[in-house]
Design brief:
six-stranded antiparallel β-barrel, about 20% helix
């Protein structure tokens, strides 16, 4: 609970205080300009929290309440404990402020200080002066790494925590690189240098690991430095794939998009915009950067091998919706296409001038952006003695521990982990952060990981929400599409037999996060129930976690 010597009692402006379990209402605070509270009821108890998600500010009154006291953001799936406001799931990092509630003479009162009531959020207090000789190394500087660092300190670990990141900046909100092309790392930073220092976390930037000695519990960086550990978490993410043709290897103004330096290069090449830009790959990265650049008066062409964008994940019918949305923004598509090579510019042979397709077409290009996927960044593990999968990923158990070695964990893009009836590797921001937090908590107090449903979002023609997984053993065999795709208001249920394995939507909140909460409890509606007209929004998520 929020605690301060300046706490006072404030009355809430409410028309009705008789809430049912699962109900929530946003109420103004009497006598406090700008003060608002989210009042909700769980298991017969009234609880009061800040009103906006600490990730991107979504109104939590439109979120999902579960019977175990979780509150889930309607946009991107961040979860909070309603008893104290603590973050439970990504992508939020800050807690919600929580306030004591009382009922007197038919009115509801909350106790707190004015600043806490107005801000509604707080940075976790994980300050620590390491006093244990134990050492944890975190390798990586992205979503999984920050989840691990905060997870390990949140649960009281007092050993030394050292982070080795090959990037020149502290962890950033990488999702904004493709969605908004923000080129200033300071504007993307999740935490300050001071925050990590107070938390007893020692960052070593521009440190790339070269090799690992699991038996000796040590690793070596490319600049020759050696680090020893008692526990290690690998969260090195993915390496963007490139095309093998000669032109793509030798010509300038051909970019991938993974870090701030890539964004800076793209923006420099676009200059004052009004450029011809070819994006190769109709993946989420390719679609997002195409959408972003089309809004800057550039001529965008997206080349994809599938019949529709994102077909492998979303299916052709839903993929066609995204294509139509981007075409409204002026984006052109060449689907079912195969790239032959990149050709030099006639005015400057050192840079790209066009992209040749195998059907003989030539696409003029001032610059090219590759969005053809990523590979697990595990080069440093190839001679370590552990067996990597064919895609280069690391096999882990349900505690994110690497199989075959002691005291080592892997999370994020590099980890193939148990999910459903098989194993899966998922390249989602939320998955990496949740896994990092769980690995950190397991090191701190052997906490058993709690199942989470993968959630991601994308900025296409309208905001896309997605939960679940429809790859590997969970691959869907049918899609039920409801709503009006022509009005960008729809929900798609991906099913395998009768089981719903994934849900996607646009302008249908909070159906995706409600489905995510039902999935992790094994209570999601069946395909037949969906087709009969039932909605996940009709089902109050129970407390029990029985996901399969």
């Amino acid at each position: 609970m929020t605690t301060t010597v300046q706490q006072k009692e404030f009355k809430l402006k409410l028309d009705n205080i008789n809430l049912k379990d699962g109900d929530k209402v946003e109420a103004e605070v009497e006598g406090l300009e700008g003060g608002k509270i989210l009042l909700l009821k769980v298991n017969g108890s009234l609880r009061a929290l800040g009103t906006k998600c600490t990730h991107y500010g979504a109104p939590l009154v439109k979120g999902v309440v579960s019977d175990d006291g979780r509150l889930t953001c309607p946009w991107h799936g961040a979860c909070f404990d309603t008893t104290n406001g603590f973050v439970e799931n990504a992508p939020a990092l800050d807690h919600l402020n929580a306030f004591h509630v009382s009922v007197k003479d038919g009115a509801v009162y909350v106790r707190g200080d004015e600043d806490s009531l107005k801000t509604g959020r707080r940075v976790p207090n994980i300050a620590c002066s390491p006093r244990s000789a134990e050492r944890v190394l975190v390798v990586g500087g992205g979503s999984g790494a920050i989840g691990a660092v905060e997870g390990i300190r949140e649960k009281g670990y007092t050993g030394k925590v050292t982070v080795l990141s090959k990037e020149p900046y502290l962890p950033i909100d990488r999702t904004k690189l493709s969605k908004a092309l923000i080129s200033d790392a300071a504007k993307l930073a999740w935490r300050t240098d001071e925050f990590f220092k107070e938390s007893g976390v020692d960052f070593h930037l521009e440190k790339e690991v070269e090799s690992v000695d699991f038996a000796g519990h040590k690793l070596k960086t490319k600049d020759g430095e050696e680090f020893s550990y008692d526990k290690v978490i690998f969260a090195t993410g993915g390496t963007p794939k490139r095309l093998p043709m000669q032109g793509f290897k030798s010509l300038g103004n051909i970019f991938v998009l993974r870090d701030v330096g890539d964004v800076q290069g793209i923006l420099k090449a676009t200059g004052e915009n009004e450029k011809k830009i070819v994006v190769i790959g109709s993946s989420f990265i390719g679609m997002e950067v195409g959408k972003c650049l089309s809004g800057k008066k550039n001529e965008i062409t997206i080349v994809g091998m599938e019949s529709a964008p994102l077909e492998r994940v979303m299916g052709p019918e839903v993929g066609a919706i995204f294509q139509r949305q981007l075409e409204k923004s002026g984006v052109k598509f060449y689907m079912n296409a195969q790239v032959d090579d990149a050709k030099p510019s006639q005015s400057n042979p050192s840079v790209v001038g066009s992209v040749a397709l195998k059907d003989g077409q030539s696409l003029e290009a001032d610059l090219v952006i590759l969005g053809v996927g990523v590979a697990p960044a595990t080069e440093y593990l190839k001679n370590s003695g552990i067996k990597l999968k064919d895609d280069g990923s690391v096999v882990v158990d349900d505690h994110w521990r690497i199989k075959g070695v002691e005291d080592a964990y892997a999370v994020g893009d590099i980890a193939t982990y148990p999910h459903g009836t098989g194993v899966v590797r998922i390249e989602h921001w939320n998955v990496a952060q949740n896994a990092g937090r769980q690995a950190g908590r397991h090191i701190a107090n052997k906490r058993k990981p709690v199942p989470f449903t993968p959630i991601f979002w994308s900025a296409l023609g309208a905001q896309l929400r997605y939960c679940g997984n429809s790859s590997g053993n969970d691959k869907h065999d049918d899609v039920t599409l409801l709503g009006d795709p022509n009005q960008d208001k729809w929900v798609a249920y991906y099913t395998q037999g009768e089981k719903v394995v994934a849900v996607a939507s646009q302008n249908f909140d909070p159906v995706v996060v409600q489905s995510a909460e039902l999935m992790r409890r094994g209570k999601m509606l069946s395909k037949s129930e969906i087709k009969a007209g039932r909605s996940p929004l009709e089902v109050y998520p129970p407390a029990e976690i029985t996901a399969t």
